[in-house]
Design goal:
12 strands, Sig_transdc_resp-reg_C-effctor, DNA-binding response regulator, OmpR family, contains REC and winged-helix (WHTH) domain, Rossmann fold, alpha/beta, about 260 residues, OmpR/PhoB-type_DNA-bd, CheY-like_superfamily, elongated, single chain, four-stranded antiparallel β-sheet, Arc Repressor Mutant, subunit A, five-stranded parallel β-sheet
C-alpha cells in the first residue's frame, strides 16, 4: 500500500523555472491513452515527479502529462482533452488563476483543481471565481487530494453540459457533437448515438449488457430489439472509429459493449 503523500509548500518567490520532463509516450490522435488522463501544470520539478507517480499509481490515471509553466499548460490543453487538470497558482510565467480563466475561455470543461501555498479566504475566492472547481492548499495528503479529484469527476460525468475525453475526441453531450482537435474534425451524433456513448462512458471500463443499454437509451418499448441497438452501434462505429475494420473505441464484449477510453 502506498504511503500518504505530503506535498511540500513551495516558496512563492525566486522559484526556478524547470524544463518539463520528456513524455516517453506522448498522446497523439493515432495513439490515444486507454484510460483517464490528467494534466499537471506545476513548475516544481520534485513535486511534479512525485505527484505524477502517485497519480498514475494510486490515482488510477492512465496518463499524467506535465507542463512546467502556464504557456505550456495552455498548449497541452489545446492539443487534446483531459479528464482532470491540476494547476499550480504560483507559476513562473503567469498567475495560475489567469491560466484557469484562459482554459475556461478556450472551452475546457473538465474539473480544474488549483494547488497553492496560500490559504487565505481571498485567495480561495479569487481562484474559484477564475473558474476552478476546487482549491487545494499545500501541504496536502494524497488520499484527500484523490478523494476530491474523484468527487469532481463523478459530478462532471453526471452533467450533460460536461466535456468528455473519448480517444482523440472531445464529446459534448449537450450539443450531440464529437470534436477531434488534432484534425479539426467535427462529428454530429443522433440522439440515440449520443445516448449510447454517454451511458458507456459513465459505465467505463465496465461492459454494459445489451438489454441494459437498450433500457437506458430507448426506455421501455416492446417493439425495440437488440438488433436495433446493433444497427445503431454499427453506424456509430463507422462515424468514430479510425479504422472501421478494427474497433478500438466502441468494443463488443460477450453480452454487451464497452468503451475503450
Amino acid at each position: 500500500m502506498l504511503e500518504p503523500f505530503h506535498a511540500p509548500a513551495s516558496p512563492q518567490k525566486n522559484r526556478p523555472m524547470v524544463a518539463p520532463d520528456p513524455d516517453p509516450h506522448p498522446a497523439t490522435a493515432e495513439d490515444p491513452p486507454a484510460g483517464p488522463s490528467l494534466l499537471l501544470i506545476e513548475d516544481d520539478d520534485l513535486l511534479a515527479r512525485s505527484l505524477g507517480e502517485q497519480l498514475a499509481g494510486a490515482g488510477g490515471f492512465a496518463q499524467v502529462v506535465r507542463a512546467a509553466d502556464g504557456a505550456e499548460g495552455l498548449a497541452r490543453a489545446a492539443e487534446r482533452a483531459f479528464d482532470v487538470i491540476l494547476l499550480d497558482v504560483g507559476l513562473p510565467d503567469q498567475d495560475g488563476r489567469q491560466v484557469c480563466q484562459a482554459l475556461r475561455a478556450a472551452g475546457v470543461g473538465c474539473p480544474i483543481l488549483m494547488l497553492t501555498a496560500a490559504d487565505s479566504d481571498d485567495d480561495t475566492i479569487t481562484g474559484l471565481a477564475a473558474g476552478a472547481n476546487d482549491y487545494v492548499t499545500k501541504p496536502f495528503r494524497l488520499n484527500v487530494l484523490l478523494a476530491r479529484i474523484e468527487a469532481h469527476r463523478r459530478q462532471h460525468r453526471g452533467s450533460d453540459d460536461a466535456l468528455f475525453s473519448i480517444g482523440p475526441y472531445r464529446f459534448h453531450p449537450a450539443t450531440k457533437m464529437l470534436h477531434d482537435p488534432a484534425r479539426g474534425r467535427k462529428i454530429r451524433l443522433t440522439e440515440k448515438e449520443c445516448g449510447i456513448l454517454k451511458y458507456l462512458y459513465r459505465a467505463a471500463p465496465e461492459t454494459v449488457p445489451r438489454e441494459v443499454l437498450l433500457g437506458e437509451v430507448w426506455g421501455y418499448n416492446a417493439g425495440v430489439t437488440t438488433h436495433t441497438l446493433e444497427t445503431h452501434v454499427y453506424r456509430l462505429r463507422r462515424k468514430i472509429e479510425p479504422d472501421t475494420k478494427t474497433a478500438t473505441l466502441l468494443l463488443t464484449e460477450p453480452g454487451g459493449y464497452r468503451l475503450g477510453v
